[in-house]
Amino acid sequence: MSTIWVVIAGAAVVTFAIKAAGPVALGGRDLPPAFTRVIALMAPALLAALIVTAALAEGRRLAIGADTAGVAAAVLVMARFSSVIGAVVGAAAVTAGLRALGL
């Protein structure tokens, strides 16, 4: 068996163990309210971090470019019209337009 398959199998076992630890440890009990509030905030925080990283990073350096302007356009559309589809279309249009202009 090659090394890559051993690594994949090990990662699968570790992932399974991590995912099983919560239900096994809690045993069907409800989480304390403090944990529930923190867990509810984790997904939006992760999404925001991914968006900021994608919009402001180019490799290992800070970069402001067409994709940053696209994200800014999406924010403006969401703030003004609360339309997710409009935000996606606006971001794509601004990003594509600036890239077509070579910016």
Short summary:
The chain is mostly helical. It has 4 helices and 2 strands, in the order ααββαα. The longest helix is centred in the N-terminal third of the chain and has 24 residues, at 3-26.
Notes on the protein architecture:
With 103 residues, the chain is mainly α. It folds into two domains: 1-30; 31-103, no CATH class. It contains four helices and two strands; from the N terminus they run H-H-E-E-H-H. It has helices at 3-26, 33-56, 66-81, 84-100, and strands at residues 57-58, 61-62. Strands 1-2 form a two-stranded antiparallel sheet. Strand 1 (57-58) and strand 2 form a beta hairpin. The radius of gyration is 21 Å and the shape is flat. 10% of the residues are buried.
